[in-house]
Write a structure and sequence with these properties.
It is built from 8 helices and 7 strands, in the order βαβαααβαβαββαβα. The protein is of the alpha/beta class. The chain has one domain: P-loop containing nucleotide triphosphate hydrolases (Rossmann fold), CATH 3.40.50. The mean pLDDT is 90.
Length: 228
């Protein structure tokens, strides 16, 4: 499938960097951009009443990672759905993948084979201090497990904007767990970022700014580099 102006983006950053918020803002500017979020795919699967659903749910509740090969299977299915829907979509934006260099290379191969293009990576850089501040305030929905964007926390939100369920702190958002997540990012995700940088397919954004300024900087750099 070769289509003019069909763009594929991967949004990367530490937990709490505001990836979901920037994806939402980008979708408002680029109409028809299909959002593929690894976390949402896994949460949907975890609600299934079978042994696999239970295993995924237990893995997520314990703050552990589902194997990258299984995650790649999930997003490959979504790529094929987009392909089968023809001109319905103008592009794709990934959130939550890739998490490892091997997954990034698998994604490159799959996207080249299906869409005859390569993904552009967006790295939202946020300081460790700011990440800790955001994550210690983060809440999720008890009912649907939807994470609440940090920009909404200032409104003292008590109900999930998706399903209306009660929101609560994530049990794994402890200082120790946050430090472990940051170490995981440094050890596993940063090699993917260096991979995209080496191929001149990386845009770095200052994520310590307010969300609107992050979006403005991202849009400007996408246009400057002719990725939009």
């Amino acid at each position: 499938m070769t289509r003019k102006n069909f763009r594929i983006f991967v949004v990367l950053g530490r937990s709490g960097s505001g990836k979901g918020t920037q994806v939402e803002m980008l979708q408002k500017k680029v109409k028809g951009l299909r959002h593929i979020e690894t976390g949402a795919l896994l949460r949907e699967l975890s609600r299934e009443k079978n042994s696999l659903g239970k295993r995924v749910k237990d893995t997520l509740n314990q703050g552990e990672l589902v194997p990258y090969s299984f995650v790649a299977y999930l997003w490959t299915k979504e790529l094929l759905k987009v392909f089968s829907q023809g001109n319905r979509w103008s592009g794709i934006v990934f959130e939550g993948s890739p998490r490892k260099l091997i997954e990034a290379k698998m994604m490159d191969q799959a996207i080249r084979f299906i869409f005859d293009t390569e993904p552009i990576a967006v790295y939202i850089e946020v300081s460790r201090k700011e990440v800790v501040r955001r994550l210690l305030k983060r809440v999720v929905c008890e009912k649907c497990s939807n994470p609440i964007p940090y920009r909404l926390l200032e409104n003292n939100i008590t109900k999930c904007p998706v399903c209306g369920g009660r929101v609560t702190r994530r049990p794994d958002d402890t200082p120790k767990a946050i430090r472990e997540r940051m170490e995981f990012f440094k050890r596993n995700v940063m090699p993917s970022i260096r991979h995209y940088r080496k191929d001149n397919r990386l845009i770095s954004i200052n994520g310590d700014q307010p969300a609107e300024k992050v979006s403005h900087e991202l849009w400007g750099k996408l246009k400057k580099n002719r990725f939009i």
